[in-house]
Structure formats: C-alpha cells, structure tokens
C-alpha cells in the first residue's frame, strides 16, 4: 500500500517557489522542497491529484495556481517513518498570492529561487534537483511549442 503525495513546481519571473520544510516534519525536516502534500480519501472523485496539489499549495504558502497543471514525473520512496510513498510532480503556473509560510508547522520558509540556486543549495536533496531539472525541461519545451 502506498501513500500518494503530490507536489507543484511553480514558476514565476525566472524563479521556482521552493519551501524549507519545518524541522518538526517527520520526513525531510529542514530540507528544501516543492510545495505539496498527501491526497486525502474523498470517496469517488475526479481530478484528485490536481485538486490536492492546488489545495496544498494554497494551505501551505497562500498561492493560487492556474487551472491547467502539467504532469512532470512520478517517483516512489520510503519515508523516514517507513511508509511507502508515490510522489507525483506537476508543473504549475502561478496565478496569485504573496507566497508566505502560512502553515508554520509544515513550512519554515518560502523562497523564490533560480534552478541554479536550487542545484547549488546545501539543503536541496537530489530528488528536488531532479524535479527542478525536469520542470525546467518541460517549461522550455512548452515555450518552444508556443513559438
């Protein structure tokens, strides 16, 4: 059995919205991360992953993203608690909000960072760097398709 977790790679003004997870968090406390969280059981439901990532982004950092989300990739890992997790990352387009640590028990700090800043940051785990790399590639592909 897996826990389903979703994350949003939010891009604005040549930077990505990156949080520093609260040190109180059981998994990856104090490390940098995309914004996201666990899908909740809702019975029969459509677009559960998309609705979850939008809700988590708003609850944690007070940002709204545009309606259209684009799948980037998925991974699986074993959390520090021993639970098996499937993680799905979406490319999200910023719509509105100031990006604050609205949920301090989950988010220590909020930063807008370039991809290079993420790659070089000592608190950026390899899986975050990989997600940003893939998000950059997808964003660039989208821009080339529009031209």
Helices and strands in order:
Blueprint: E1 3-12, E2 15-21, E3 32-33, E4 35-38, H1 48-61, E5 64-65, E6 70-78, E7 84-96, E8 107-113, H2 115-120, H3 126-146
Parallel strand pairs: 1-7
Antiparallel strand pairs: 1-2, 1-4, 2-3, 2-8, 5-7, 6-7
Summarize the model shown:
The protein contains 3 helices and 8 strands; from the N terminus they run E-E-E-E-H-E-E-E-E-H-H. With 147 residues, it is of the alpha+beta class. The protein has a single domain, classed as Nucleoside Triphosphate Pyrophosphohydrolase, CATH 3.90.79.
Describe this structure in words.
- Helices cover 28% and strands 37% of the residues.
- The longest helix has 21 residues, at 126-146.
- The protein has 147 residues and is of the alpha+beta class.
- It has 3 helices and 8 strands; from the N terminus they run E-E-E-E-H-E-E-E-E-H-H.
- It has a single domain (3-146), classed as Nucleoside Triphosphate Pyrophosphohydrolase, CATH 3.90.79.10.
- The N and C termini lie far apart (43 Å).
- Strands 1, 2, 3, 4, 5, 6, 7 and 8 form an 8-stranded mixed beta sheet that branches.
- The model has no long low-confidence stretch (mean pLDDT 92).
- Strand 1 and strand 2 (15-21) form a beta hairpin.
- The protein has helices at residues 48-61, 115-120, 126-146; strands at 3-12, 15-21, 32-33, 35-38, 64-65, 70-78, 84-96, 107-113.
């Amino acid at each position: 059995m897996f826990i389903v977790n979703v994350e949003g790679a939010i891009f604005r003004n040549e930077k990505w919205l990156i949080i520093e997870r609260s040190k109180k968090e059981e998994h990856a406390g104090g490390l940098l991360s995309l914004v996201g969280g666990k899908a909740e059981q809702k019975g029969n439901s459509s677009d559960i992953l998309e609705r979850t990532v939008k809700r988590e982004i708003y609850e944690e950092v007070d940002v709204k993203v545009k309606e259209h989300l684009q799948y980037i990739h998925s991974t699986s890992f074993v959390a520090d608690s021993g639970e098996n997790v499937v993680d799905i990352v979406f490319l999200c387009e910023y719509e509105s909000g100031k990006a604050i640590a609205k949920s301090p028990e989950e988010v220590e700090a909020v930063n807008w960072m370039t991809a290079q800043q993420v790659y070089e940051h000592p608190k950026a785990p390899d899986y975050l760097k990989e997600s940003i790399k893939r998000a950059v590639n997808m964003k660039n592909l989208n821009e080339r398709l529009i031209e």
